[in-house]
Specification:
By secondary structure, the chain is mostly helical. The protein has a domain of 67 residues. The protein contains 3 helices and no strands. Helix 2 packs antiparallel against helix 3.
């Protein structure tokens, strides 16, 4: 567990330093970030609501199964958002606003 925490921290530190350097050379558009956050948050909340609805309908799963499904969906959304943000930053860096 400690090793996983160290790897996670190192990854986050690298990402922070890398993004901080990119942000110095680019302009950030707040409205695009708001849209990206909504696109990320809505599916996660829908997943939680679907799990609650299934439970209310009497369909139950082990908590580990629900957690794994939730984390898989969240990871897929995070990867998708990372790709979208990366494309947006590349547009900004190269001066292409179309």
């Amino acid at each position: 567990m400690l090793l996983a925490g160290i790897i996670f921290f190192a990854n986050q530190l690298f990402t922070f330093i890398y993004q901080k350097e990119k942000d110095r050379h680019s302009e950030v558009f707040i409205k695009e970030y708001e849209l990206y956050n909504m696109l990320r948050i809505v599916p996660i909340h829908l997943t939680l609501l679907a799990a609650a609805l299934l439970r209310d309908l009497g369909i139950t799963f082990e908590s580990k199964v629900v957690l794994v499904v939730f984390l898989l969906i969240k990871t897929a959304i995070d990867i998708g958002m990372y790709v979208c943000e990366d494309k947006a930053f590349k547009k900004i860096e190269f001066g292409n606003t179309s």
